[in-house]
Amino acid sequence: MSEIEIKFVTRERPLAPFISSVLPAIEKAGYQISREPEVRLQNDYYDTPEHHFQNEKMGFRVRGCNGVFEQTMKTHGKVSGGLHQRAEYNIDLVSAEPDLTLFDKNVWPSGWHVEQVNRQLERQFSTHFVRTAFNITLDSDSIEVVVDEGEATTGKNSAPIREVELELKAGSVASLFTLAKIIARHTPVRLSDVSKAAQGYQLLSGISPVVVPLSSFLPLQQQETTEAAFCSAVQHALSHWQKHEHLFYETGSVKVLAEIVKCARLLMQTVSLYLPVLQCPQLLAVHQLLMAYMQDWLWQDDLQSLRYLLSKKSLFNKCLSKFPALISYLQGRKAGLIHAHDPESLFFSGQSNELKLALAEIVAAKPWRSHSKAYDVPVMEHAQGWLSQGWQTVQQTLPKSRNMTPENYIAIEVLLRQTLWNGYLLAGLFDEERHHFRAPWLDILTGIDEMKALLMLRAMANESELDDIGEVLTWVEEKLASLMRVMERTRQAGMQGDIYW
């Protein structure tokens, strides 16, 4: 069978606030609610020593409840902004011992020798939790909401399980999103695409704050429709966003926050680019949500400049290492920014959930189909015009004859990023020459980041009122001058590049 779910995680135990705050709101919206008795579930997750299941992004468990046992295999399926669609296969067992051979042979990946895998199975980790289920109905729509409280454990390590999951039993996907929005408005939750199995594997192997960069281009086929290209871009950005949001939540690593902001900007440009073709009120509303959401993250530019200044791998380290008092001052400013804006709270905010649910719902519902037929046109028919328009704007803003200053470069940063995001979204339709064309402009963006950090260093050195900052200020001016020379040469080279579209 196939299941369609939305999953939330919470910072605190979710059942009490769900009963006190969420259920009254659901009843007020006209839904009928019936509560099931609580059950205590023990789940043992199995894999081979080579982690066949994990490598295929599948999960296999044996669940026990009151002496009744069931084995379940879940495929990776598809996840879009918290909406899970995946195949699930269940088999009753007479004991807690797993037996893969009981499943239909067609469920397994090509090349698997199920009997051999079955002999190699070993228990990897367990999840123990209390589940409280609510059956929620309205007309022909039926949704099961389960609240899970417990822990995942390997025996040596453990992590809390605090989840609220919605599964569509009957009716429309729209009803699932409607209920999810009610929940998100009435209790602090965060959309999640991390399964209990994935959480257990993280306990086994640990989780490190390694940034996973976006691909160079969005993968597209030349025959891709405009609708498919848009949906692919949104799903790609949402997946990257949630991956790094989870990474920050688990590790507290500040460097992954830049990826979240990058995804929000990519989504903003995706909606802006496609809105003239996929015109509908829902997409316009998403654009407005994105604009409002970005206001909460404007401080990230200053944070990333401070990270750049304090990095031991940056060009600043050799100079700043001579001035420990200035480094301490910069570290204090960095800590103050994080404390003032509390990124973890932003993840659990109603605004964040509203935006991600709206994006996931618009990909599922495709509301533009009611307004025009343009969605079915190959995106290739739009791509060349869109890319040419962006390039013309860059040429007009950065003519060869113009003498640029650091302030000029910083002023055109947003425009340049938007144009390069268009390239990210569409260049997959074209050949490899795209790399040569984009490279100098990407280098200029890197230069702008360095420039902003240098200007911040100059401003904060003056603000700090520390002694002996004259050497720092002199070094900043030298680096700015050197950087400007490099960026000007890069700009001239970029202007001479042949377009790839």
Write up this protein.
The protein has 501 residues and is α+β, with helices and mostly antiparallel strands. The protein folds into two domains: 2-205, Hypothetical Protein Pfu-838710-001 (Beta Barrel), CATH 2.40.320; 226-495, CHAD domain, CATH 1.40.20. Helix content is 51%, strand content 19%. The chain has 18 helices and eleven strands. Strands 1-7-5-4-3-8-9-10 form an eight-stranded antiparallel beta barrel. α6 (226-251) runs antiparallel to α13. The two termini are 44 Å apart. The model has no long low-confidence stretch (mean pLDDT 92).
CATH topology of the largest domain: CHAD domain
Beta strand count: 11
Total discrete domains: 2
Global Rg? 26 Å
In terms of DSSP E residues, the strand content is: 15-25%
Class of the largest domain, according to the CATH hierarchy?
A: Mainly Alpha
Q: Report strand order across the widest sheet.
A: 1-7-5-4-3-8-9-10
Mean pLDDT: 92
Compute the separation of the termini in Å: 44 Å
| Total number of helices | 18
Low-confidence stretches: none
Identify the CATH architecture of the largest domain: Alpha solenoid
Rough shape?
A: globular
What is the structural class?
alpha+beta
Please estimate the helix content. 40-55%
Characteristic terms for this protein:
single chain, 501 residues, alpha+beta, Hypothetical Protein Pfu-838710-001, CHAD domain, 2 domains, 18 helices, 19% strand, globular
Short description:
The chain is of the alpha+beta class and 501 residues long. The protein is 51% helix and 19% strand.
List strands and helices in order, with pairings:
Layout: E1 2-9, H1 15-28, E2 32-35, E3 39-47, H2 52-55, E4 59-65, E5 68-74, E6 78-80, E7 83-93, H3 114-120, E8 122-138, E9 141-153, E10 158-170, H4 173-186, E11 190-191, H5 196-205, H6 226-251, H7 257-274, H8 281-295, H9 300-310, H10 317-320, H11 324-341, H12 343-347, H13 350-365, H14 380-397, H15 406-411, H16 413-426, H17 433-464, H18 470-495
Antiparallel strand pairs: 1-7, 1-10, 1-11, 2-8, 3-4, 3-8, 4-5, 5-7, 6-7, 8-9, 9-10
Helix pairs in contact: 1-4, 4-13, 6-7, 6-13, 7-8, 7-16, 8-13, 9-11, 9-17, 14-16, 16-17, 17-18
